């Protein structure tokens, strides 16, 4: 299967692997063998990870190219990028939001974030797989 034809599940697995390789602990994931993530405001993300050293949560959301224009996607990006840590060393720090997309639509994300008026949020990170 060519890399550019990734489906939602394989993108979730790629993001789990990315988080794990960066020393994060996967607490919840929309993937076999993990407990399902809980709802944050209106939607549940694909992954919730935790950096024990900095006591900071991470949110991972996977989107296929066609999902980028959906209203649900806009709500998720707004809600997840606004989430603050409630306690610990990183109290009141915005959680990093990692958006994973197939390589072929990675270049569309900056415009998508501008359209959603989220392009100034420094806690949003985009990864293409």
Please give the structural blueprint:
Elements: H1 8-21, E1 25-29, E2 47-51, E3 56-62, H2 71-81, E4 97-101, H3 109-115, E5 124-128
Q: Could you please describe the fold and organization of this structure?
A:
The protein has helices at residues 8-21, 71-81, 109-115, and strands spanning 25-29, 47-51, 56-62, 97-101, 124-128. The protein has 129 residues and is of the alpha/beta class. The chain has one domain. The protein is globular and about 35 Å long. This is Restriction endonuclease type IV Mrr domain-containing protein.
Query: How many independent structural domains?
Result: 1
Count up the helices.
3
Derived from helix and strand composition plus strand pairing, the structural class reads: alpha/beta
Number of strands: 5
Extract low-pLDDT stretches: none
The helix content, as a percent range, equals 10-25%
Q: In a nutshell, what does this entry contain?
A:
With 129 residues, this protein is of the alpha/beta class.
What distinguishing features does this structure have?
129 residues; alpha/beta; five-stranded mixed β-sheet; 5 strands; 25% helix; 21% strand; Restriction endonuclease type IV Mrr domain-containing protein
């Amino acid at each position: 299967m060519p890399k550019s034809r990734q489906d939602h599940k394989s993108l979730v697995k790629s993001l789990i692997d990315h988080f794990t390789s960066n020393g994060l602990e996967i607490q919840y994931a929309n993937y076999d063998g993990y407990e399902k993530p809980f709802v944050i405001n209106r939607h549940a993300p694909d992954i919730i990870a935790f950096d024990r050293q900095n006591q900071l949560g991470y949110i991972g959301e996977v989107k296929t190219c066609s999902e980028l224009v959906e209203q649900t996607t806009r709500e998720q990006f707004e809600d997840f990028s606004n989430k603050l840590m409630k306690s610990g060393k990183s109290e009141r720090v915005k959680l990093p939001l990692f958006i994973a997309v197939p390589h072929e639509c990675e270049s569309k994300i900056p415009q998508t974030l501008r359209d959603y008026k989220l392009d100034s949020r420094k806690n949003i990170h985009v990864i293409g797989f």
